[in-house]
Amino acid sequence: MTAQARESLKYQDETLSLCGLPLDSYFELLGEDPPFMARDTALWRGYIGSWEILDGRLYLVGLGGYGQTGKDIDLSDLFPEYPERVFAHWVNGIFRAERGKLLKYEHAGFASLYEQDLFFGFEHGLLQSVEVKSNAVPASED
Amino acid sequence: MKWIVAYLGIGILVLLGFLIDARLREPRRKQDGWNEMRALLLKGRQSWASRVVDSYLIPGLTALLVLAFWPAALVLALYMNRDQRKGSAQAEGELPAQFIVTREHLREALSPERIEMQEMVVDPLDAAPKVPFGFLNGGWQRLRREAQEGDQFWSFDAPWGRYGTATSRRVGYALVRDGKVVTWFVGSIVPLDNGYL
Protein backbone atom coordinates (compact mmCIF):
# COMPACT_ATOMS: atom_id res chain seq x y z
CA MET A 1 0.00 0.00 0.00
CA THR A 2 1.21 3.53 -0.74
CA ALA A 3 2.40 5.58 2.23
CA GLN A 4 -0.66 7.32 3.66
CA ALA A 5 -1.09 11.03 4.32
CA ARG A 6 -0.95 11.81 8.02
CA GLU A 7 -3.41 13.64 10.19
CA SER A 8 -2.00 16.77 11.83
CA LEU A 9 -1.75 17.22 15.59
CA LYS A 10 -0.99 20.51 17.29
CA TYR A 11 0.63 20.03 20.68
CA GLN A 12 2.28 22.75 22.74
CA ASP A 13 2.60 25.14 19.79
CA GLU A 14 4.15 22.44 17.64
CA THR A 15 2.45 20.74 14.71
CA LEU A 16 3.17 17.05 14.45
CA SER A 17 2.21 14.34 11.97
CA LEU A 18 -0.26 11.97 13.58
CA CYS A 19 -0.02 8.32 12.51
CA GLY A 20 -3.43 7.24 13.64
CA LEU A 21 -7.09 7.80 12.85
CA PRO A 22 -8.98 8.93 15.95
CA LEU A 23 -12.07 9.69 13.88
CA ASP A 24 -12.51 6.09 12.74
CA SER A 25 -13.67 4.84 16.12
CA TYR A 26 -16.37 7.54 16.15
CA PHE A 27 -18.05 5.99 13.11
CA GLU A 28 -17.53 2.50 14.50
CA LEU A 29 -19.35 3.52 17.68
CA LEU A 30 -22.13 5.12 15.69
CA GLY A 31 -22.45 1.87 13.74
CA GLU A 32 -22.18 3.77 10.48
CA ASP A 33 -19.89 3.63 7.50
CA PRO A 34 -17.71 6.74 7.19
CA PRO A 35 -19.18 8.99 4.50
CA PHE A 36 -15.85 9.37 2.74
CA MET A 37 -14.41 7.78 -0.35
CA ALA A 38 -10.86 7.39 -1.56
CA ARG A 39 -9.77 9.45 -4.52
CA ASP A 40 -6.06 8.98 -4.07
CA THR A 41 -3.95 5.94 -3.29
CA ALA A 42 -2.10 8.02 -0.65
CA LEU A 43 -5.39 8.73 1.12
CA TRP A 44 -7.47 5.56 1.26
CA ARG A 45 -9.56 6.87 4.12
CA GLY A 46 -10.74 9.84 2.03
CA TYR A 47 -10.19 12.56 4.60
CA ILE A 48 -7.53 14.38 6.57
CA GLY A 49 -8.26 15.59 10.08
CA SER A 50 -6.56 18.31 12.06
CA TRP A 51 -6.35 17.76 15.81
CA GLU A 52 -5.23 19.81 18.76
CA ILE A 53 -4.42 18.99 22.37
CA LEU A 54 -5.53 21.87 24.53
CA ASP A 55 -5.49 21.82 28.34
CA GLY A 56 -5.10 18.05 28.27
CA ARG A 57 -8.03 17.42 25.92
CA LEU A 58 -8.11 16.21 22.35
CA TYR A 59 -10.10 18.31 19.89
CA LEU A 60 -10.88 17.83 16.24
CA VAL A 61 -10.36 21.31 14.81
CA GLY A 62 -10.46 20.73 11.09
CA LEU A 63 -11.52 18.22 8.49
CA GLY A 64 -11.23 17.95 4.74
CA GLY A 65 -12.69 14.94 3.01
CA TYR A 66 -14.21 13.56 -0.17
CA GLY A 67 -17.80 12.47 0.14
CA GLN A 68 -19.31 9.43 -1.55
CA THR A 69 -21.81 11.74 -3.21
CA GLY A 70 -18.97 13.62 -4.86
CA LYS A 71 -19.26 16.58 -2.50
CA ASP A 72 -16.47 17.76 -0.23
CA ILE A 73 -17.02 17.24 3.49
CA ASP A 74 -15.70 19.47 6.24
CA LEU A 75 -16.08 19.66 10.01
CA SER A 76 -19.36 21.55 9.87
CA ASP A 77 -20.89 18.81 7.72
CA LEU A 78 -20.16 16.11 10.30
CA PHE A 79 -20.76 18.24 13.40
CA PRO A 80 -23.08 21.08 12.29
CA GLU A 81 -23.45 22.57 15.75
CA TYR A 82 -19.70 22.55 16.41
CA PRO A 83 -18.09 23.91 13.25
CA GLU A 84 -14.92 25.18 14.94
CA ARG A 85 -13.88 22.43 17.28
CA VAL A 86 -15.15 19.11 18.57
CA PHE A 87 -14.11 17.50 21.84
CA ALA A 88 -13.12 13.93 20.89
CA HIS A 89 -14.51 12.26 24.00
CA TRP A 90 -14.79 8.91 22.16
CA VAL A 91 -11.03 8.52 21.78
CA ASN A 92 -9.23 5.88 23.84
CA GLY A 93 -5.80 4.38 23.35
CA ILE A 94 -2.31 5.38 22.37
CA PHE A 95 -1.62 7.38 19.23
CA ARG A 96 1.77 7.86 17.64
CA ALA A 97 2.98 11.12 16.14
CA GLU A 98 6.19 11.83 14.26
CA ARG A 99 8.68 14.61 14.70
CA GLY A 100 11.91 15.60 12.98
CA LYS A 101 13.61 14.49 9.80
CA LEU A 102 12.62 11.49 7.74
CA LEU A 103 15.12 8.72 8.43
CA LYS A 104 13.72 5.93 6.33
CA TYR A 105 10.85 6.00 3.84
CA GLU A 106 8.55 2.99 3.72
CA HIS A 107 6.03 2.68 0.92
CA ALA A 108 3.34 1.40 3.23
CA GLY A 109 0.77 3.08 5.43
CA PHE A 110 2.35 4.98 8.33
CA ALA A 111 5.50 2.87 8.40
CA SER A 112 8.08 5.53 7.50
CA LEU A 113 10.58 6.31 10.24
CA TYR A 114 11.26 9.81 11.56
CA GLU A 115 13.75 11.09 14.12
CA GLN A 116 11.30 10.89 16.99
CA ASP A 117 8.04 9.15 17.80
CA LEU A 118 5.71 10.65 20.38
CA PHE A 119 3.11 8.38 21.97
CA PHE A 120 0.01 10.11 23.31
CA GLY A 121 -2.24 8.07 25.59
CA PHE A 122 -5.90 9.10 25.78
CA GLU A 123 -8.85 8.02 27.86
CA HIS A 124 -12.24 9.40 26.82
CA GLY A 125 -10.43 12.18 24.96
CA LEU A 126 -8.35 13.21 27.99
CA LEU A 127 -4.58 13.09 27.67
CA GLN A 128 -3.15 10.59 30.15
CA SER A 129 0.47 10.22 29.05
CA VAL A 130 3.09 11.41 26.60
CA GLU A 131 6.22 9.40 25.80
CA VAL A 132 9.02 10.35 23.43
CA LYS A 133 11.13 7.77 21.65
CA SER A 134 14.19 8.68 19.64
CA ASN A 135 14.82 6.73 16.43
CA ALA A 136 17.99 8.52 15.38
CA VAL A 137 21.17 6.48 15.41
CA PRO A 138 23.94 8.41 17.18
CA ALA A 139 26.88 9.30 14.90
CA SER A 140 29.92 7.11 15.65
CA GLU A 141 33.09 8.79 16.83
CA ASP A 142 36.11 8.39 14.61
CA MET B 1 -31.05 -31.94 -24.57
CA LYS B 2 -33.88 -32.06 -22.01
CA TRP B 3 -31.33 -32.52 -19.27
CA ILE B 4 -29.42 -29.42 -20.36
CA VAL B 5 -32.60 -27.38 -20.40
CA ALA B 6 -33.56 -28.70 -16.96
CA TYR B 7 -30.04 -27.99 -15.64
CA LEU B 8 -30.07 -24.42 -16.95
CA GLY B 9 -33.64 -23.94 -15.71
CA ILE B 10 -32.60 -24.84 -12.19
CA GLY B 11 -29.55 -22.61 -12.63
CA ILE B 12 -31.83 -19.66 -13.44
CA LEU B 13 -33.87 -20.34 -10.29
CA VAL B 14 -30.69 -20.52 -8.21
CA LEU B 15 -29.46 -17.24 -9.74
CA LEU B 16 -32.77 -15.56 -8.94
CA GLY B 17 -32.53 -16.86 -5.40
CA PHE B 18 -29.05 -15.36 -4.97
CA LEU B 19 -30.20 -12.02 -6.36
CA ILE B 20 -33.18 -11.86 -4.00
CA ASP B 21 -31.02 -12.91 -1.04
CA ALA B 22 -28.38 -10.28 -1.88
CA ARG B 23 -31.04 -7.62 -2.19
CA LEU B 24 -32.52 -8.51 1.21
CA ARG B 25 -29.14 -8.54 2.93
CA GLU B 26 -27.71 -5.32 1.52
CA PRO B 27 -30.33 -2.99 0.13
CA ARG B 28 -27.94 -0.03 0.28
CA ARG B 29 -24.92 -0.23 -1.92
CA LYS B 30 -21.67 0.27 -0.06
CA GLN B 31 -18.42 1.56 -1.34
CA ASP B 32 -16.31 -1.47 -0.50
CA GLY B 33 -12.60 -1.92 -0.96
CA TRP B 34 -12.86 -3.49 -4.43
CA ASN B 35 -14.99 -0.67 -5.79
CA GLU B 36 -12.68 1.94 -4.32
CA MET B 37 -9.63 0.32 -5.89
CA ARG B 38 -11.32 0.02 -9.26
CA ALA B 39 -12.44 3.63 -9.12
CA LEU B 40 -8.88 4.69 -8.45
CA LEU B 41 -7.47 2.58 -11.27
CA LEU B 42 -9.87 4.36 -13.56
CA LYS B 43 -8.82 7.73 -12.09
CA GLY B 44 -11.90 7.83 -9.81
CA ARG B 45 -14.19 8.96 -12.56
CA GLN B 46 -17.16 7.12 -13.96
CA SER B 47 -15.60 6.65 -17.40
CA TRP B 48 -17.31 4.77 -20.18
CA ALA B 49 -15.13 1.73 -19.53
CA SER B 50 -15.93 1.84 -15.83
CA ARG B 51 -19.65 1.94 -16.51
CA VAL B 52 -19.43 -1.02 -18.89
CA VAL B 53 -17.41 -3.04 -16.38
CA ASP B 54 -19.59 -2.04 -13.45
CA SER B 55 -23.00 -2.39 -15.03
CA TYR B 56 -22.61 -5.18 -17.56
CA LEU B 57 -19.37 -7.14 -17.55
CA ILE B 58 -19.10 -8.13 -13.89
CA PRO B 59 -22.80 -8.92 -13.37
CA GLY B 60 -22.94 -10.77 -16.68
CA LEU B 61 -19.91 -12.93 -15.98
CA THR B 62 -21.15 -13.71 -12.49
CA ALA B 63 -24.57 -14.75 -13.80
CA LEU B 64 -22.98 -17.02 -16.42
CA LEU B 65 -20.80 -18.69 -13.83
CA VAL B 66 -23.75 -19.35 -11.53
CA LEU B 67 -25.81 -20.74 -14.41
CA ALA B 68 -23.02 -23.05 -15.47
CA PHE B 69 -21.91 -24.17 -12.01
CA TRP B 70 -24.99 -23.70 -9.82
CA PRO B 71 -24.46 -26.89 -7.76
CA ALA B 72 -21.02 -25.63 -6.66
CA ALA B 73 -22.43 -22.14 -6.07
CA LEU B 74 -25.18 -23.61 -3.86
CA VAL B 75 -22.71 -25.65 -1.82
CA LEU B 76 -20.46 -22.61 -1.37
CA ALA B 77 -23.38 -20.41 -0.32
CA LEU B 78 -24.58 -23.00 2.20
CA TYR B 79 -21.07 -23.41 3.59
CA MET B 80 -20.61 -19.67 4.02
CA ASN B 81 -24.04 -19.35 5.61
CA ARG B 82 -23.26 -22.11 8.07
CA ASP B 83 -19.97 -20.45 8.93
CA GLN B 84 -21.74 -17.19 9.75
CA ARG B 85 -24.19 -18.97 12.04
CA LYS B 86 -21.34 -20.65 13.91
CA GLY B 87 -21.37 -17.92 16.62
CA SER B 88 -22.55 -20.06 19.54
CA ALA B 89 -20.37 -23.00 18.54
CA GLN B 90 -17.11 -21.02 18.27
CA ALA B 91 -14.00 -22.76 19.48
CA GLU B 92 -12.88 -21.61 22.90
CA GLY B 93 -10.93 -18.37 22.69
CA GLU B 94 -12.29 -17.50 19.26
CA LEU B 95 -14.57 -14.55 18.84
CA PRO B 96 -17.90 -14.86 17.03
CA ALA B 97 -18.25 -13.50 13.52
CA GLN B 98 -20.40 -10.64 14.79
CA PHE B 99 -20.08 -8.76 18.04
CA ILE B 100 -22.44 -9.99 20.71
CA VAL B 101 -22.84 -9.27 24.41
CA THR B 102 -23.45 -12.31 26.59
CA ARG B 103 -24.03 -12.75 30.33
CA GLU B 104 -20.35 -13.40 30.93
CA HIS B 105 -19.57 -9.84 29.76
CA LEU B 106 -21.94 -8.19 32.23
CA ARG B 107 -20.32 -6.30 35.11
CA GLU B 108 -22.69 -4.27 37.26
CA ALA B 109 -26.40 -3.51 37.42
CA LEU B 110 -27.02 0.23 37.39
CA SER B 111 -29.99 2.53 37.19
CA PRO B 112 -30.28 4.57 33.98
CA GLU B 113 -30.06 7.74 36.08
CA ARG B 114 -26.76 6.60 37.58
CA ILE B 115 -25.43 5.70 34.12
CA GLU B 116 -26.37 9.11 32.75
CA MET B 117 -24.70 10.86 35.65
CA GLN B 118 -21.41 9.02 35.26
CA GLU B 119 -21.39 9.25 31.45
CA MET B 120 -22.18 12.94 31.20
CA VAL B 121 -19.75 14.67 28.82
CA VAL B 122 -18.62 18.07 30.02
CA ASP B 123 -16.17 20.20 28.10
CA PRO B 124 -14.91 23.62 29.30
CA LEU B 125 -14.88 24.90 25.70
CA ASP B 126 -18.43 23.62 25.07
CA ALA B 127 -17.10 21.62 22.15
CA ALA B 128 -19.45 18.68 22.79
CA PRO B 129 -23.11 18.40 23.75
CA LYS B 130 -23.50 18.33 27.52
CA VAL B 131 -25.52 15.13 27.55
CA PRO B 132 -24.75 11.52 28.52
CA PHE B 133 -22.28 10.04 26.00
CA GLY B 134 -21.92 13.36 24.17
CA PHE B 135 -22.01 12.86 20.41
CA LEU B 136 -23.03 9.23 20.96
CA ASN B 137 -26.14 10.14 22.92
CA GLY B 138 -28.42 8.87 20.15
CA GLY B 139 -27.33 5.28 20.73
CA TRP B 140 -28.02 5.56 24.45
CA GLN B 141 -31.48 7.02 23.81
CA ARG B 142 -32.28 4.09 21.49
CA LEU B 143 -31.32 1.69 24.27
CA ARG B 144 -33.52 3.51 26.76
CA ARG B 145 -36.50 3.36 24.40
CA GLU B 146 -36.15 -0.43 24.20
CA ALA B 147 -36.50 -0.84 27.97
CA GLN B 148 -39.68 -2.36 29.38
CA GLU B 149 -40.90 -2.53 32.95
CA GLY B 150 -38.78 -4.96 34.93
CA ASP B 151 -35.75 -4.71 32.62
CA GLN B 152 -32.34 -4.10 34.10
CA PHE B 153 -29.44 -2.04 32.80
CA TRP B 154 -26.03 -3.65 33.17
CA SER B 155 -22.58 -2.36 32.29
CA PHE B 156 -20.57 -4.71 30.09
CA ASP B 157 -16.99 -5.14 28.97
CA ALA B 158 -16.43 -7.49 26.03
CA PRO B 159 -13.37 -8.33 23.94
CA TRP B 160 -13.64 -7.86 20.21
CA GLY B 161 -11.65 -8.14 17.03
CA ARG B 162 -12.64 -8.27 13.39
CA TYR B 163 -10.71 -11.39 12.50
CA GLY B 164 -11.37 -13.68 15.43
CA THR B 165 -8.64 -12.38 17.72
CA ALA B 166 -9.41 -9.74 20.32
CA THR B 167 -7.71 -6.43 19.60
CA SER B 168 -9.90 -4.18 21.70
CA ARG B 169 -12.55 -4.09 24.39
CA ARG B 170 -16.05 -2.82 23.74
CA VAL B 171 -17.52 -1.20 26.81
CA GLY B 172 -21.08 -0.06 27.25
CA TYR B 173 -24.47 -0.91 28.66
CA ALA B 174 -26.82 -3.82 28.04
CA LEU B 175 -30.52 -4.33 28.57
CA VAL B 176 -31.30 -7.52 30.49
CA ARG B 177 -34.79 -9.00 30.53
CA ASP B 178 -35.67 -12.13 32.48
CA GLY B 179 -31.98 -12.85 32.87
CA LYS B 180 -31.21 -12.58 29.15
CA VAL B 181 -29.29 -9.89 27.29
CA VAL B 182 -31.79 -8.29 24.93
CA THR B 183 -29.75 -5.53 23.33
CA TRP B 184 -26.85 -3.23 24.09
CA PHE B 185 -25.14 0.08 23.41
CA VAL B 186 -21.37 0.36 22.95
CA GLY B 187 -20.14 3.59 24.53
CA SER B 188 -16.41 3.19 24.01
CA ILE B 189 -13.74 1.12 22.30
CA VAL B 190 -10.52 0.53 24.21
CA PRO B 191 -7.51 -1.01 22.45
CA LEU B 192 -5.93 -3.99 24.19
CA ASP B 193 -2.30 -4.28 25.32
CA ASN B 194 -1.54 -0.62 24.68
CA GLY B 195 -1.84 -1.28 21.00
CA TYR B 196 -1.84 2.03 19.30
CA LEU B 197 -4.36 2.93 16.69
From TrEMBL, chain B:
<feature type="transmembrane region" description="Helical">
    <location>
        <begin position="56"/>
        <end position="80"/>
    </location>
</feature>
<keyword id="KW-0472">Membrane</keyword>
<keyword id="KW-1133">Transmembrane helix</keyword>
<keyword id="KW-0812">Transmembrane</keyword>
<protein>
    <submittedName>
        <fullName>Uncharacterized protein</fullName>
    </submittedName>
</protein>
<feature type="transmembrane region" description="Helical">
    <location>
        <begin position="6"/>
        <end position="24"/>
    </location>
</feature>
